[in-house]
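thread from #wetlab-drylab

HS: before we spend reagent money on co-crystallization trials with zinc ion, can we at least see a predicted complex? here's what I'd submit
DV: go for it
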Amino acid sequence: MPCWCCNRSSVGCFDLIAEDGAARAGVLHTAHGDVQTPAFMPVGTKASVKSLHPDEVRSLGASIVLGNAYHLHFRPGEELIAELGGLHAFSGWDGPILTDSGGFQVFSLRDTLASVDDDGVTFRSVYDGAAERFTPELAARIQRSLGSDVAMCLDVCAPAGVDRTELEDAVRRTSLWAERQRGADRAAGQLVFGISQGGTDPELRRRSIEEITALDFDGNALGGLAVGEDWAEMLETVGWAAPLLPHFKPRYFMGIGDAAGILEVIARGIDMFDCVLPTRTARTGSALTAGGRLNLRNSRFARDPAPIEDGCDCPACTRFSRAYVRHLVNQDELLGLRLLSLHNLRFVLRLTENARAAIERGEFQAFRVAALARLEQEEVV
Ligand SMILES: [Zn+2]
């Protein structure tokens, strides 16, 4: 189905293929290819999805990966990356890339934060402690040099539990900065997404969404959620906030990657999401499965010939046993980390693919209820 805006599915167009309740299936057209939504974006913070080759990431079903302007600005620097042909050429990933602006890193590393004013934010670099300053103009310039397909606005991401004055300042500055970044130069074909803030405060979140969407970005994100607030309150906020975002543009929930969270935000009208959870969980020796989390370090797997997850089509499950993976992780063998990363990413990407198929069939609600019921058997590890 061609898109509503130009009938040609040009770069930047978002075709809505199917809607099922508030859940949506679509296609976002970018300069480096199409992204089928709902889409989970594996995180390649430092221009690499930890321990995986880009061909592996692609074969797991990822169509878009995430890079990080904060980290790449400091190491190795966006100018160096631009000199070597941009982030796609540099990292060997030729598909779509979304880059985060660095707002989340600057504001979540609270002890490195020095001061924030209407012009920008001053902080100490996590790499060498040097005083640094980010402004919306710099965030635009970094992402332009990286040449990502989707650049994110620099926002003020307030943690959960801050007082209302701080939250209100975050909303006000996020809008000021978005307006400045909106007018900045961008890479050829680069889309720019705006971010709303306001936590779970109905008035501030609504105000932020109104101000950001008035700037007419190519897509819109809900930022400053899943940052430590109450889970039910967060979901309630997504439930009324997502429908306030433009219907015919992609909606991105920043920072969710557990199976239940993915199902719940899709159900509320979110199209894109990212999280380090699948690869971070792998580094702790745990696997994500439809029946909950498995700690492969556990001695009960010592003689278990079964795959990590029955029926999984990933490169770990089609060839290796739990007993072998347990041995590898307990011996800190690199292959153990890689196998768990492959499995965990495949799990999340398959869940998202299945959610999309269920939306297209008009059966998402039943799919979600069944998947959540299986997850409730989750083992505590
Ligand atoms: Zn697997």
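DV: Residues 308-309, 312, 314, 316-317, 343, 346 surround zinc ion (CB under 6 Å).
HS: ok that's useful, forwarding to the group
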